[in-house]
């Protein structure tokens, strides 16, 4: 890097983000998201944890093969088999990177039961091993912000001496604060021999809501790589949100004179894609990408914005790829217009996909007065649910509800075989879910059932998210329709399809997330 103020963006949506319980993404979704991240200008994509499962390994390998500009990184614990497996997956990339880590704080040292000297030796051996395989090695002392400073300096020095090019400083439990975050990086740069030859990176979790502030403070302290995820996805309260740090650096360039290589107009499309793939709905008041981030409801605000947008807006919707004119199309719009509109929204569809979305668009336009951008996004995202490829497929649903009781008549395909059932329940959704359960008996528990309106009005589409748990595995399903009950059933069946796919994977000897990050 020649520009001393250039900050590298390291996206870990597909690794740390996907680690969030229930956020498991399919292979195709991961490839899609990686392609979008690459196009957006992300410098490094952490594509997964290859030793964790066959699925992770295959996804990282495929992403590596398809990568164009971004470096592709895989995660590995401080163990030779992990590092070898990681290299096998990332070696196909134009720019491969191995990221190896070990917990260095007193609490984390106790897990593998290593004393300080033994851990130092393990770091020396594993970083050297990784460096013998790959030119680009990143090393992380997990829980760095709760590690004794003298010991942190000692192990960082070892990693640098053994050839790590990037030293990532994780705030694993979201414990640090901005002043401390800047000071820690400054301290390492000042004290560790060889520090000026590597890039320091920051990796923050959001347990106290300070991840973005801590990451920016680390940059002030000398870090030149930020690790982050789209929508701040990640375990517990999540990771630093990519859109927040990138937009903060852009909007407040006057006081933070740093640059990134991100094309910010791609932010919104990625946010939508990640939300749909992970099943994690973006909260309406989420900074930058929330539905309300550019809405001005109160009279005073509207008046101000109409006179001069800068009165209440510090960035333009178009900066993040949001269209200003949100009225989309009507029932007379043709396929070419739909393709152009979707392209504007960040979706480049193949001919078959477009054909399918067009049919759904026409059906929606018949039922709904105005079709907005958000409706179109929901249509595209929904095109992947309840398809012919799914083992469980909803074919027909008829619901009776009201004061005389609720019941459902459901027709489903189970592995191609048609099944019909009548069920009653405590409310229409309960009746439908019971009908599904009698067609496809299962032990999965419903953890979350969430409905939100895509747009305004009583004819709006509803997006329903359903999260299910079965034997510790969690899967999410999402579907949209103007019929909330139908969307609910499709989302429920979508989650069951995902659980089945994961059960089948175990049967074939591979499972997502069988390996613990903490067993070193
Ligand atoms: O939070 C953390 O410490 C991590 C490491 C593996 C970098 O995700
Ligand atoms: Zn993390």
Could you describe the 3D structure shown?
The protein is of the alpha/beta class and 520 residues long. The protein has 4 domains: 8-278, Aldolase class I (TIM Barrel, Alpha-Beta Barrel); 292-322, no CATH class; 327-384; 392-507, 2-Layer Sandwich (Double Stranded RNA Binding Domain), CATH 3.30.160.270. The protein is built from 17 helices and 16 strands. A hairpin with an 8-residue loop joins strand 14 and strand 15 (462-470). The radius of gyration is 24 Å and the shape is globular. 48% of the residues are buried. Bound molecules: 3-methyl-2-oxobutanoic acid and zinc ion (ZN). Zinc ion binds at residues 16, 170, 172, 203, 205. Zinc ion is lined by residues 16, 170, 172, 203, 205.
